[in-house]
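Lab notebook, bench 4. Still working through the backlog of constructs that have no structural model yet. Next entry is a single chain of 225 residues. Request: give me the structure tokens for it.
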Amino acid sequence: MAGEVRQPERVIPRAIIYSVISVALIYSLMTLCVMAVIPWRQAMQSKFIVAQFMETVYGPWAGSAVTVMILWAAFASVFALVLGYSRIPYAAALDGYFFKPFARLHPKGGFPYISLLVIGGLAALASLLELEWVLSALLTARILVQFIGQILAVHFLRTRRPEVSRPFKMWLYPLPSLIALVGWSYIFLTSGWTFILYGLLTLAGGLLAFSIWRRTSSGAALCRE
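Model written out:
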């Protein structure tokens, strides 16, 4: 997305900070409103707290209405995430760092349909599993592959590749990286052996895919360059 944003080094960090602050304020206000109506001990046990809140204040029709709105928002979120995440393999393939078929665009729609079908298929398979398990597994794998990986990549670029442009600045480096590394490592190591193993297998699967890609003619040529 940074390639499609004007002044990404200025816009993206501000957008992230503003979004985090805004969502935190909205969530805090919503929590206070709920706790003013429903006792917090009861709210902790509820799986439909917003619908229960609206039903208590306005009646059954309001609870049903807000449930429909939540379901619609959840569907829209999944739809947007699938479209967004499908652009990651597409962008990597377009730059020559992933399998070529993922760079194909739909002849009429102009969207990366191969990448979209793969991401959508994986999401559909994940929907057959228990939601809590899927969320924990995805978070654990993402911590190991992306979050910890990014911290190590930043250090590698600063020490081994000083010629690479780094438009995004980090204040008080390396302190933020060290704090993030300790925090993410603690979460990963305390997530349970099942999810730790899943994260390691995900990393191993990525390494296997990379080795297969590297053996292709384009991947080998790019690595030699």
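Notes after review: Residues 91-128 form one domain. The chain is about 75% helix and 0% strand. Flag for follow-up if needed.
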